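I hope you will forgive my troubling you with a question about protein structure. Could you please explain, in whatever detail you think fit, how the structure tokens follow from the sequence? Thank you for your consideration; the sequence and its tokens are set out here.
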Amino acid sequence: MTKPSIVAAVQSGRILVSDGAWGTFLQQKGLLPGECPELWCLTHCAAVLDIARSYIAAGADLIESNSFGGTAFKLRHYGLAERVAEINTAAAALSREAAGADRWVIASVGPTGQMTAMGDVTEEDFYHAFREQAVALAAGGADALCIETMSALDEAAAAVRAAREHTSCEVLCTFTFERTRQGGYRTMMGVSPTAAAQAALAAGAHIIGANCGNGLAGMLPIVREMRAAAPGTPILVHANAGLPKNVNGVDVFPETPAEMAAQVPALVAAGANIIGGCCGTTPAHIAALRRAVDGLRG
């Protein structure tokens, strides 16, 4: 039986579980400082495939891909700008192999590191770069494209439009927010959860949300604000394992799998439909989230 779209699955009442961190997992497998993570999709296929399989085994319904920095802008730093199609197609194909026929691949699309406000690029430049990546990820078998860790509305909108106009994939768009001194939440570029939700939907996103920046507890007010701004739209949360603490020069994410899982009922009540992890989360965290979500049906 053909699996439904992600939106249809959410509309049927399901709470879905997504995957966890990729970067730290790659480092555990030997990725060195200064190496291109995305190139591992070609040079260390077995290691990348194992990461994806680990999250599927933990109970994830959706799996991302090792393509966060897969635009030409990012790959140019490694002399790989001409290999965008090759790298991204491989990234999606590896996650597709791990996911099988009944799980969704939500291929990762991260920010370019450029800003129109600084005169680095134009919105058209963004659009062309994201189009090239999106087409390659779709060719590799992605069901959806997860445009994530966004902070600027123009870049996010360009990515969403490129994905919608050049692929048949569902499009997710998440922003990263930090708590302000006034108590609200804003992206690095000053964008509120309400403005982010509205802009993503206007550009054509099927699913909106937040990732990184906060633990699950810190995501609650963000989800509530997004839910108020977009009552009928699925909301995804990829949370860090708590706020990082620097221990002997190393960022440590302190939240345990049990502590993350304890936040699930409140997060679902706030309006989240898809819950997964970001920095510091592991297959153990995702397994705990899986049990918590399944417990909601009990």
Q: What stands out?
A: The radius of gyration is 17 Å. Residues 123-139 form the longest helix (17 residues). Residues 26 and 37 are 7 Å apart (CA to CA). The first strand starts at residue 16 and ends at 17.
